[in-house]
Amino acid sequence: ESDTASEISFQLNRHKKTPSTGSHSSDMASVSSVSGSVLSVYSGDFGSVDAQGTVEFALDYDEKNREFQVLVSQCKDLAVVDEKKGRSDPYVKTYLLPDKARMGKRKTSVKKRTVNPIYNEVLRYKIEKMVLLIQKLNLSVWHNDPLGRNSFLGEIEIDLASWDWSNRKLNWYPLKPRSLSAVNGVDHRGVMSLSIKYVPPGSLGEWPKNPPSGEVHIWVKDVKDLLQLRPAGVDSFVKCYVLPDTSKKSYQKTRVIKRDTNPVFNHTIVYDGFHTEDLKDACVELTVWDHEKLTNHFLGGIRLGLGTGLSYGISVDWMDSTQEEVAFWQEMMLAANEWIEGLLPLRSL
C-alpha cells in the first residue's frame, strides 16, 4: 500500500523494538514514518500591505485524467510593497482546504517589478472529483522577497461544492484581506481516545523475569470528528511505529473501519524489548489514514515522547511532541504498570 504523504526513513538497528507475539496486529510492507511539519497558509508573511487589485483565473476538472486545474491568467492593480522603488514581485499560490497537508501548495512563477503581472499558467491537482467537492480553493497573491520575507497581497476563497463546473471561462475576482477561516481551524483533524501503559522488565515477578524486557502497551480506543473525504464518510485505520525504528517489525496497524468519521477501533498494540532508558529516546507515532485501493490518504496523527528533538544523541525532526503529548508520555513513565488515559488532538506531522 502507498500513502499520499512525504515519507522519511530513519533506522537505528541497535535499538529496534519488536512487537510481542501477543499483539493483535498483522505485519505488512514497511512504510516510513510521516515527517515534516506543514507550515501555515500564511507562513512567511512579513508585510503590512493592504490587499487591493484583482486576479483573473478559471477552474476546470479534467474527468479523463482526474485532475483539478486552476488556470491563473493575470492580476491587475496589486499593492506596491517597495514604495521607495515603486515595485512588487508577485506570484500566485493555491491550497485546497481544509486538508492543505495532503494536497500541498501550488504556485506560479514570480513576475518582477510589476503590479499587473501576466502568468497564463495552469496549477494542477491529481484528485478525485468527489473529494474535490468537499474542499475549498484558497488562492492568494504574494510579493516574493529574496530573503524570504514575503508579503501577503490578497486572496480569494471558493467553496468548490457550490462551484458552477460548466463555467470554464476566465473571470476577474477582487482580492480580499486574509480570511479567518483559513487562519483558524484549518488543521482540526479530530481527536483520538487512547490509553498507554509501561511494564518495566521483571516488574511482574515469577520465573525467570516477567517480562524479560520492558513492554509498552497502546490501547487505541476511538477517533472522533475525522476529516470527511467523501460523502459516505471515510474508511479509516491507524498505523503505529516506535521511532526511530521504521522497519517491518515496528509497523503495526488496526483493522479498517468503513464509512465512519467517528470510528471505534478498540485495538491493543504491544511492543516489547523496551528498557526504561529507551523511553527518553523513543517515540510512539500513531497516524490515521483513509484507506483506498491504490493509495491511502493521511488524516492526522500524534507522536508520544519527550519532544526533545533528540533520539539516542542524534537530532531528529520527528521528536516533536506537543505539550499535551509530552505530558501524556511523562505520566506513563511515572506510573509503571498503570493504564494512563488520554484524549489527544490529531495534527499534521
Description:
There is one protein chain. The protein is mostly beta strands and 349 residues long. The protein folds into two domains: 54-182, C2 domain (Immunoglobulin-like); 190-346, Immunoglobulin-like (Sandwich), CATH 2.60.40.150. The protein is 7% helix and 38% strand. It contains four helices and 21 strands. It has helices at 100-103, 129-132, 180-183, 323-334; strands spanning 7-8, 18-19, 33-34, 54-62, 67-76, 90-97, 106-107, 118-126, 136-143, 151-159, 171-174, 191-199, 214-224, 236-243, 252-253, 264-274, 283-290, 297-304, 310-311, 314-315, 340-345. Strands 2-16-13-12-21 form a five-stranded antiparallel beta sheet, covered by helices on one side.
Structural class: mainly beta
Strand/helix succession: EEEEEEHEEHEEEHEEEEEEEEEHE
Beta fraction = 35-45%
What's the rounded overall pLDDT mean?
80
Q: Can you tell me the CATH superfamily of the largest domain?
A: C2 domain
Shape: elongated
CATH topology of the largest domain, what is it called?
Immunoglobulin-like
CATH class of the largest domain: Mainly Beta
Alpha-carbon distance between the two ends: 19 Å
Proportion of helical residues:
under 10%
Overall number of structural domains: 2
Name the strands of the widest sheet in spatial order. Answer: 2-16-13-12-21
Main location: membrane
Organism: Prunella fulvescens
Protein name: Synaptotagmin-like protein 2
Region (Disordered): 1-29
